[in-house]
Amino acid sequence: MIGVKDKELGVYAMIRIAVCSLCLKTRKENLMLFGKNICEDCEAELTQSSTEDLSYDLYVKKMKEVLTAPSKQDKNKL
User: Which of 31, 52, 51 shows the shortest CA–CA distance to 40?
Assistant: First the structure.
């Protein structure tokens, strides 16, 4: 977690950061699927892409990996 200042409100807030399971960049926690983060940028790409887009197959492959790989919670149970 990191503290950030809201420019409009002038207050600090704590946000969670995590590595995005698709782009592998450290981003603000956004969409959590089975304990894995999907960043806001990747979520937008996923929801706005069509089957004709060149990146579509790559996103499908990455999402399969995210959905089938064990989560941190699963690894802790072992």
Answer: 31
Nearest 5°: the CA angle 52, 36, 54 is 15
Indicate whether 78 belongs to any domain: no
Structural domain total, the chain: 1
pLDDT tens-digit series, residues 24-76: 999 999 999 888 999 999 999 988 989 899 888 888 899 898 888 876 655 55
User: How far is CA 39 from its chain centroid?
Assistant: 3
